[in-house]
Amino acid sequence: MSAIHLDSVTKRFGTHVAVNDLSLDVPEGSIYGFIGPNGSGKTTTIRMIMNILLPDSGRIRVLGRDDTRAARDDIGFLPEERGLYKKMQVRQLLRYYGALKGASTKALDPVIDEWLRRLGLTDWADKKIDALSKGMAQKVQFISTIVTRPKLVILDEPFSGLDPVNAESLKDAVLELRRQGVTVVFSTHDMASAERMCDRIFMIFRGNKVLDGSLDEVQARYGHDTVRVRVSGGAATLAGLPGIEAINDHGNYQDLRLSGDPQAFLHALVQRGAVQQFEVTKPSLHDIFVRIANPTDAEPAAAEVVS
Amino acid sequence: MSRILTVAQMEFLTLVKTKAFLLGILLMPVLMAIAIGFQVYAARHTDTEVRRFAVIDGTGVLYDAVAAAAAAHNAEKGEGDAQTGPHFVPERVDLAGRSADEAKLALSDRVRAKDLFAFIEVPAGIIDAGGDAESVRYYTETPSYEPLPDWVRDVLNRAIARERFARSGIDQSLVERLNARVPLASYGLMTRQVDGTVGQARETDVIATFVMPFVFLILMFLSVLTGAQHLLNAIVEEKMSKISEVLVGSIEPFKLLMGKLLGVAAVSILLASIYMAGGIFAIFQSGRWDLLRWDLFAWFFMFLVCAVLMYGSIFLALGSACSDLKDAQSMMQPAMLLIMLPYLASFAIVRSPDSPLAVGMSMFPTVTPFVMMMRLAMPPGPPLWQVFASVAIVLAATVFLVWAAGRIFRVGILMQGKAPNLPEVLKWIRA
What we know:
The complex is a heterodimer.
Chain A (H helix, E strand, L loop, with lengths): L1 E12 L2 E12 L3 E5 L6 H8 L7 E6 L5 H4 L3 E4 L11 H11 L4 H14 L15 H13 L5 E5 L7 H16 L3 E5 L3 H7 L2 E6 L2 E7 H7 L4 E6 L3 H4 L5 E6 L4 E5 L3 H11 L2 E7 L3 H9 L6 H4 L4
Parallel strand pairs in A: 3-7, 3-8, 5-6, 6-7
Antiparallel strand pairs in A: 1-2, 1-4, 8-9, 10-12, 10-13, 11-12
Chain B lengths: L1 H16 L1 H27 L4 E8 L5 H15 L9 E6 L7 H13 L5 E5 L14 E4 L6 H22 L3 H8 L11 E2 L5 E2 L6 H35 L2 H6 L4 H34 L7 H28 L3 H27 L4 H7 L5 H10 L6 H29 L9 H9 L1
Parallel strand pairs in B: 1-2, 1-3
Antiparallel strand pairs in B: 3-4, 5-6
Helix pairs in contact in B: 1-9, 7-9, 7-10, 7-11, 7-13, 9-10, 9-14, 10-11, 10-13, 10-14, 11-13, 12-13, 13-14, 14-15
């Protein structure tokens, strides 16, 4: 069964089409990454899944139910903009957010304690929210989305603004959820974590679905035209070589997108200097993202819409 | 339903636990007592100055009366620490061949030098002038100080009257006796008792007729405003700190709205009950059992709940349409006017509780609770049909306003940025 099923969903705000004829299937128990530039329709899609917004047309099924309102109690939702009552104590707030989803204090307390411990917040349980650092508050918000043991968790930008340590502990928490069989959907701008964590990746651009599939499938679609090279002289050595469409200069090495045959390119490169590394790789999610959403040649993206 | 109660409970506890609420309840009576006490004390004790003033007595016969009255006045106000008011010390001015203007200029200089507080010029012909007498002139640097001129006016008028009676050869005490005013006592109506005897009408009671309506009016204002104001602030804060989106991800907007309304209604009832308990205690202490009308308490709470729900809905709808407190404050003005309306009309309503104005206002939903409560508190009260009509109107309006607020709330709570205009808001209601 699929946890979320969208069937030709469209949402307009006035004349602006925020989400256009979107179909999507999120299998149960998977981690699904939503990526896309700001303002491309991610949050609107998530809000429709949450039944905060209603689609203008199309069908949405969540956890096997057509009435997404009925499913709401089984969904944990972390909105993009964090919202916590500053004057409330951590435990009191978690109990309140849990009670709003219909859970009793008795059922909530063990889960609250467990997650506070796991995220290193046990000592903060009786502190007020405004005494917490931003990272701690974000972890509290994360706990608030999962205290009712939801079957589906939707996280809008869960890692943004976190230091690496906090981001790491939240990523571990997400993986722990999957181990427990929870379906996780999260949107992110952090391509590395999407690549590392997600079973499937979905990209929306200007309201249209442009990518949907496992990382392998997505990378396969964009071909094996990426080459990682390390040459003496660095990027300067590459200047003027034929067949280079784009260079992503990492300093010690460069990722290249080639238009022609990689072997022919290698041949040309060897003439220029000592080649320390030459590897035909899959394009990174980052590269694919930039290729689709690159503002300098935005138009081609429309042609790559996945039907 | 249980989630509505969860929200209601949280709303109730957060509001009741705020320092402002506790201080408001506890401190209000204390503050009022202090304010009244201070005013009484200040009125008695601040002005213990000696006010010297000169009298240019053109008539030549009035100064002695002024001096005698001043001596009596000063004796009455007491001396030293026990002194409770100003002492007035007059002095006679002898023109000694100077012109009046010269003398007044000299006196003015003395006032400027703080040697005198004021001086008075009594025209020569004032006793015989009759109806179109000249004014007595009071010269001072401090015209805002009124006790002295007031006292002088009284003293001179009495002295002049006495002189006029004497000169006309009429016995003043006889005239005063003949002129004595007759009091008028105001009564209710006679009734036929169950046993057939005629029940005596009771004398109209100022407290029951005039004070009680205002007590209920003010109590309702206080309770409604405490709640409604809190709702507005809370909803704008939730919007600004993006809590709304978390909430509507868990609970339907309408349930959220209902929970908030119920929580605040409970707070208003608590607040009103505390003050009422105080009032009932005062009644017990004073033994004015006739003021204890349980039916009025029942009406009060019914109208209070309706008023809180109505104004709570209006303020929640306003708050949900705004994205910062400044917006909210300016949108609140018209709503506040609506609340102030019965207060502004209250004197007219008390004077004439069955006037078309009073009846009309008690049928206009948003002010019904206030106006009808006042009219109910005034014996004999409005006709029964009006009471039931107003109840029906206010209940219908409450249901409508809560519903409309729910529609606005649902859209507004997720809106960010510019506050919507009225047509947009109306569209949200119809959508």
